[in-house]
Design a protein that fits this description.
Layout (H helix, E strand, L loop, with lengths): L2 H25 L11 E7 L2 H6 L3 H8 L2 E7 L1 H13 L7 E4 L1 H11 L6 H6 L12 H6 L1 E2 L2 E2 L2 E2 L5 E6 H6 L10 H12 L4 E4 L8 H10 L5 E2 L2 E2 L4 H17 L9 H9 L3 E7 L3 H4 L9 E4 L16 E4 L6 H11 L2 H8 L8 H4 L2 H9 L1 H16 L11 H16 L5 H17 L2
Parallel strand pairs: 1-2, 1-3, 8-11
Antiparallel strand pairs: 3-13, 4-5, 6-13, 7-11, 7-12, 9-10
Family: Belongs to the bacterial solute-binding protein 1 family.
Subcellular location: Periplasm
Organism: Hoeflea marina
Length: 434
């Protein structure tokens, strides 16, 4: 058996024993069976966090006696389902995944979130460590004094690139944002069967990755209360992003979100992939990319380095018929024991205590790519911004116009000037509605 595999299994066994002993001790102080016999319905986005945590579903049901019903969709379909149910003020689901940076202000204004702060302060297991959660992520999920969701991870887009292809083609790692064009051109000539550069092109998903380009180029979404996509810096960001996908991206790039990007890179069909840090475990699935990948933040541009840093949160619906039982699932799924388990699966923890756990540190030390991933995440935490789209209640709708502008340039139906002008007009109308 390879030494690294022995170490991984030993760490996993030790973590499982530690978790079991901890759970047994805490069970004496906290009544996990308080809602035995009830059912909690979870509306899930089948991203890596949800996929990994639901592998432990039986543990939750055994611990609490609560039946967990799961309703799982791809992200866009999940959002459509969520909007339908919430607009009807229905109790069809109790718990749902949410991105405070995207829909937090909108959903809070609509009254769709249960305030979780009282639950966390008065009805949490002694080991929950509410105070140990990232203050920045808790603040990002708080609107008008109400805590709308418990942080599940910290993430942002990172640049994954193939070290074997860079070495073969005599290419150095990108130092500046503008280097990506020349590097992509060299890769296209040197490795014509591989897509040089891939990132999100799907209209509503695109702002997640585009925002890092915008901020690094020195652009901004708003200035003096107006849309700012036609500033010189913002136009440069639109032009660079669109041209990279148009000239060096995969066919059908306008349909690409996290799932397609991960599959393309994991299968060795893209040389550079700018996508979520949260996809790390999925990319490394099967170990094909474990030894030929480097990971860095997006290189700095004229405006410096301002990476996107956000986190998913777990929320309880205001229309849930059993919010107390729903909170039990939330605290179990977002607790330090579960986050320690998921950290060994490549889900970056939003608690410093988990990040410093010896088992996690040993797991990182096994492979250089894991250390590179954690180092890049550290930069996101230190320098990141959660501004993805416009800082307004109608943030989700604003993202549609951003994606539309970039897609118009990518598809060649508009120049950058035409695309940004059309977007600014629509966005200023949206801003005036606030």
């Amino acid at each position: 058996m390879p030494k690294s595999l022995q170490v991984s299994r030993t760490l996993a066994a030790a973590l499982l024993l530690s978790t079991t002993l901890t759970a047994a001790a805490i069970a004496q102080d906290f009544n996990w069976k308080a809602h035995e016999g009830q059912t909690v319905t979870f509306l899930a986005n089948n991203n890596p966090w949800a996929t990994k945590v639901l592998e432990h579903k039986a543990e939750f049901e055994e611990l609490t006696g609560i039946t967990l019903k799961v309703d799982s969709y791809q992200e866009q379909q999940m959002r459509q389902r969520m909007m339908t149910v919430m607009n009807a003020r229905s109790d069809e689901f109790d718990v749902f995944m949410t991105l405070p940076s995207r829909e937090g202000a909108q959903f809070a204004a609509a009254g769709w979130y249960e305030d979780l702060k009282p639950h966390a302060e008065k009805d949490a297991s002694p080991d929950y460590d509410y105070a140990g959660l990232s203050p920045a992520l808790l603040e990002a999920a708080t609107f008008d004094g109400e805590l709308t969701g418990m942080p599940l991870n910290i993430e942002g887009p990172l640049l994954y690139y193939r070290t074997d292809l860079f070495e073969k083609c005599g290419i150095d790692a990108p130092a500046k944002l503008e280097d990506l064009t020349a590097i992509s051109a060299k890769l296209k000539d040197c490795a014509p069967d591989v897509t040089p550069f891939a990132t999100r092109g799907l209209k509503p998903a695109l702002p997640y990755t585009f925002s890092a380009f915008l901020h690094n180029m020195g652009g901004s979404y708003m200035k003096d209360g107006k849309s700012n996509l036609c500033s010189a810096e913002s136009k440069a960001a639109i032009g660079l992003y669109a041209s990279l996908l148009k000239d060096f991206g995969p066919p059908g790039a306008v349909n690409y979100s996290f799932y397609q990007l991960t599959s393309l890179y994991r299968e060795g069909k893209s040389a550079m992939s700018f996508q979520s840090s949260n996809e790390f475990s999925s990319i490394m699935e099967g170990d094909a990319r474990l030894n030929d990948t480097a990971i860095v933040p997006l290189p700095e541009g004229a405006g410096g380095s301002h990476p996107t840093a956000i986190g998913w949160a777990l929320a309880v619906s205001k229309f849930s018929s059993n919010p107390d039982a729903a909170w039990y699932f939330v605290q179990w799924a977002s607790g330090p024991d579960m986050q320690a388990k998921l950290a060994l699966e490549g889900i970056a923890p939003p608690r410093n205590s988990v990040a410093g756990d010896p088992a996690y540190q040993a797991w990182l030390a096994e492979k250089p790519v894991r250390q590179a991933w954690q180092k890049a995440l550290g930069h996101l935490a230190d320098a990141g911004t959660s501004e993805v789209g416009y800082p307004i209640i109608q943030n989700p709708e604003s993202r549609e116009y951003i994606g539309q502008a970039v897609n118009a340039v990518l598809l060649g139906t508009s120049t950058v000037d035409e695309a940004c002008a059309a977007a600014d007009e629509q966005l200023n109308t949206l801003i005036e509605r606030e």
